[in-house]
Amino acid sequence: MGYVLKKEAFDQVIRELGKTYRIYAPVVKTGEGRFTDVDVVRYDFVGSAEEIELDKKSDYAFKELLTPLSETLFYFTENAVKEADKDPREALVFLRSCDLHAVKRLDQIYLANGREQDPFYKRVRDQLHFVLIGCAGSFDNCFCVDMGTNRSESGYVFSVDRSGEDYFCDVKEDAFRALFAAEGAEADVTPRYVTENPVHVSVPETVPVSIYKHELWDEYTARCINCGRCNFVCPTCTCYTMQDVFYTDNGRVGERRRVGASCMVDGYTNVAGGGQYRRTNGERMRFKVLHKIHDFRKRFGYDMCVGCGRCDDVCPEYISFSACINKVEKAVREEAADHE
Amino acid sequence: MSNPYIPFPSEILEVIQHTAKEYTFRMKYVGEVKPGQFFEVSMPKYGEAPISVSGIGPDYVDLTIRKVGRVTGEVFEHYAGQSLLLRGPYGNGFDIALYEHGEVVVVAGGTGVSPVRGVISALAETSDAGDKHVIVGFRSPDDMLFRADLKDWAEKLDLILTVDGAPEDYTGNIGLVTKYIPDLPLRDPATAQAVVVGPPPMMRFSVQGLLQKGFKEENIWVSQERKMCCGLGKCGHCRIGMNYVCLDGPVFNYTQSKDMLD
Asked: Read out DSSP for A177-207?
């Protein structure tokens, strides 16, 4: 069931929901971008509709709520171990269709890879409800249509599309209906979604091992500066490293954290004694790209990459992930032709 | 929900010194464990390190630790009369039943002997132990691990003990483990099983040698080592292609591992 709300009415809904839920949404951070006087769209908790950025693509993904860049897992106090507390309140997360598809990928790793569910992830995940932000058009570098993530028909409690002063909401969850009915008029609402991106990718069905040593990766050894930004903005990157922190005033008290890890950055594969498994940035690019478009699918049946294009947006060397996918596809095609 | 990240304390029952840098810690542990599996040893303040099980008893596991990194260095500093924090066991481990009957070759180098120690000990107790050929290599005579076991294995099965290099007066074998593969007295390499564990170049050349000798790819088993932060399939560090070393390994059949490129 859908509703159309005026601006004030929608704000009233958000304020009302804010009494029960933490509301986590894309927000414009003025002047906090990477360069002087440049803004950035990041996620943060909001208290009003006005703060929520509905028109731009967020530069960073919602995942920081589920997998914070630095998360304390537990505290060591002499011989006792205590799990870190969590905020017990439920949360509403505003995100676009590609990111809603990304949630499934995060769940796959943290809840369904291996025998055990990740309890630190699960306790946050169980509190989350998603609000779908419709997409009126494709943003720069998006290739969601080719990745099949451009549309979401379920998995959200309500959606929001703004058109002028009107907010169109498709309310999926019965519990939210009364709130919307009180503030707006009933209408037929289908969340807007992108049907055409300027950027296209062809994901190869299978990638033979020979491609691992292909010269196409050399370009990235030359261009990539292994800063890892692509991993940190990616809504589906899940890797982390354990980190112990102890207090300088009392060496018997400390905490174990996990911090975001990047497969592009030095140290990701280092083992004690100096062993390292991928030294060049080209090899690291190959490891990352093939995970997103091949290795994950071989394990779980669908591709990890959702085509949000944030890695392309953020790369200081203007490396394009979508262009790389197409280079891999071309190399695979050429190798197959050579074998015929 | 129980939390698999929280380590449990395990009493150190005994410490066995092998070399200046390598000790075996006999840890109290009751539960099912297989050779080739590993535990995460947790040192609050320093972190965690994945350590292979090098021995299994009714109420203990042996962890052979080389003082080589931040965590293991700390284990050596502060173990006396204490316990260590552990998580695990993790990984698939070796299927010993595969090696009970028929000809078997084990090639192990350096600390790679730890994960296969349980396998070799089981081979030594089989009724056709004469058909079990074990090549064990260390860097030098001073780097030898499990000396008591080596003596025991030499009596029961066909053991070739070698070192990469040694002082002039050393009377034992000198040479890389790969040197001994061509001359292994096997009746039928095509049906023999092989286990290879050690540093990556050693494994690569040993497998090459075994294939040249006539071993079938599906009869060769290797154990991989990678950086790991969880052991649970979440942190991502140990992934190779579609496989997670901590979940699907560390023991892999060669038909699978040959296509696992880092």
From this structure: HHHHHHHSEEE----------S------S--
